[in-house]
Amino acid sequence: MLIVLRLVNLVSLIGYCAEGDERHLIYEYMPKGCLADHLFEETRSRFLALYDILKHELMHDADIKFTEEMRLRVEEILDYNVPRGKLNRGLAVIETYKALKGDELSEEEFFLASVLGWCLEWLQACLLVLDDIMDNSQTRRGCICWYRRPKVGLNAINHGILLKTHTHRIFKRYFREKPYYLELTELCDEVGYQTSLGQMLDLVITHEGKNDLSKYTMQAYRRIVIYKTSYYSFYLPVACALLLSGEELENYNGIKEILIEMGVYFQVQDDYLDCFGDPEVAGKIGTDIEDYKCSWLIIQALKLADDNKKQILYENYGKSDPISVKKVKSLYQELDIQGIFSKYEAESYEKLLSAIEAQSSSVMREILKALLEKIYQRKK
After folding, report:
1. Separation CA 163–CA 198 (nearest Å)
2. CDD domains in the record, alphabetically (predicted)?
3. What is the pLDDT of residue 37?
4. 321, 302 in Cβ contact below 8 A?
5. What Cα–Cα distance (Å) separates residue 347 from each residue in 49, 199, 281, 332?
């Protein structure tokens, strides 16, 4: 498979020059690396090119009497929130669909997979806009959060809802004649519902934790993460690609379980990077300590801490002043939470890899391995 093919250098043919009867080929050397990386960048470029088409269609919807002011506002909302992320969910739809087809996608197939991928990116934008408000976040993707922009504020709630409704209009335009349209819309609605429940659980336990940190358990954490992160970040892109391929989702329940566990691992990474990651690399400033979040780190710390250390956590966790935050981080370091995370990451990788290898479908094994490799030891 291309993912494991590595070359010293890749070259791009520019042209040739003629000297008499001889023709000398002229190559441009490309950076050292993996062929799959370069092909992935080509896919990403083609995917990005479709964004402007979808945006234009939404802004010139014949059913809506747009004023120029409305168009400019919608364009600003979209450009700031939709295409500026890593695009992992959208690209995962294309790459999974391509693997399932077992061949290069036709222009029509690539287009439809890209449209569906962008629907997931629109959904992601909606969730992040609203999540940042609820979490009182400062930055997102290296920039100030949308709701903190001048003249936006809580208007961002309306903008988040607008982003969600855009996905329905895109679905209707491109998929309503497809045999899988109903199942596709029901899948996305179901995952949207699950994600909203996860967000609610997160907010509820954060409120309860302010009175009693013992509420922060791995059982509660997993329940939040599975609903809030796993379904829409890992299961949804693969499930969408399966439907595009004409597959029945009920035949892939084993795959679903692996993707859900991959989502838990991903969220633990996110919690770790919130505290110990580089904000310049991650593109956001971590606030889990200040926000009293039910984070994997605080759960591990509570397990390991003696009564004196627990008292420090109770007195300082959830406070926004820098001194309290520093005390919590210092305690994390004293308890070697970084070392515990490294062990967890290695063990999670091996468990996931073992579960993947047990799958009977070689195609699904490669799809799942590619997803796992993309997030393993990530820095953002």
Report:
1. 19
2. Trans_IPPS_HT (cd00685)
3. 54
4. no
5. 39, 27, 25, 20
Q: 365: Cβ–Cβ under 8 A, 6 or more apart, which residues?
A: 356, 357, 359
The b/e string for 314-329 (b: 16+ C-beta within 10 A; e otherwise) is: eebbbeeeeebbebbb
Task: Tell me if 354 is assigned to some domain.
Answer: yes
Note whether 14 and 28 are within 8 A (CB). yes
Total count of domains within the chain: 1
The dihedrals phi and psi of 378, each to the nearest 5 degrees, come to -70, 155
CATH no. for residue 292? 1.10.600.10
User: Shortest CA distance to 228 belongs to which of 202, 254, 207, 208?
Assistant: 202
- The reply to whether 3 falls in a domain is no
Rounded mean pLDDT for each run of 10 residues along the chain, 380 residues in total: 38 46 47 51 92 95 91 96 95 97 92 98 96 90 94 97 96 96 96 96 86 92 97 97 96 95 98 93 87 96 97 94 97 98 98 97 96 94
The confidence score (pLDDT) of residue 16 equals 41
Q: 234, 371 in Cβ contact below 8 A? A: yes
Structure tokens at 128: 């992040």
